[in-house]
Amino acid sequence: MKSCRRSPRQPLGACLPWESPPCGPAPRLGLMGSAIDITQCSELLRITRNSVIESRHYGAAVVLDPAGQVLEAIGDPEALIFPRSALKPFQAIGSLRAGAALESAQLALACASHLGTEQHQLLARSVLDSVKLGEEHLQCPASWPGDSATRSEMAARGQSQNKLAFNCSGKHAAFLAAAAASGEPLGSYLSPEHPVQLSAFRAMEEFCGPITFLGVDGCGAPAPQMSLRSLAEGFRKLAVSTDPAARSVASAMREHPWAVRGAGSPNTLVIESTGIIAKLGAEGVLGMCAPNGVSVAVKILDGASRGIDVLALGLLASHGALSAQKLEELSSRLGATAHTAGARTAGLCYLGRDFAAR
After folding, report:
1. DSSP 3-state of 304
2. Which of 15, 69, 251, 261 is least enclosed, having the fewest CB within 10 Å?
3. Domain containing residue 133: CATH number
């Protein structure tokens, strides 16, 4: 059988790498052909302490205009990455199309890497309740909440880790809701060949572009690989799409930003204060789209996430998708531009193209 591994420039409509003939079997996990490397990266973030460089982060970033043309690229926009949880909005589109009947807040949770507060856990449970399923049907790991207050409260009550508290529980609950609604098997809902996952893959290819490899995410779900530009393209289309499922996802994230991450977190702050859809991914990935269709995608090579939100917002602002005043306000709230000791500035975070000017 012919290989289904594709270049990131191969057009939409080509075979998915896990589809059966004529495209061949699923790729063998762990035999990835290529991934982003240092030769495709530029210095994106620089931490200084009293004007002395203390740390540097390298990576790649790309900004697209509302028509999908590259406005700015730092590093190689065709570098291949695992977007990880930054793909959740598109997986949620797939769940809707596969039959999941989700209320707006539940849909926002399907897009979430949430902090596991009691409110998040109750919302995930409500999705399962709607199709008469329970926590035991979730195949994500059990965990403590990311929210420290909730974690302490659970420990004080003698409670233990659970699957609802895991940051991907909303996505998994949506997968199960789709499988139950369409009469598909529940026990294999994470298999790449499962109809719900195939629906998610089709949505990702429709909005983002070609999937070049398929790995496994930390929650057990399939983890597609694609180019950084493809991720930015997906967020661009999410902002301007007239597709009913995509519009529902975008509206849900804007209406319930607390569900996407949690109160005070960068993604939630950005969405609730600007209407910009923002979604982080593990290992230093972030996608954003402004209401006018300008989008940005960032990958930090070493997997760090500090400063990544301000970097992405700065790129959007430089292309007219965010006001300078709002950028300054958010930079201060996100705490990524200055490290202070009393009234003295001890360190600054410089971003990308600003290096030469400073």
Report:
1. coil
2. 69
3. 3.40.710
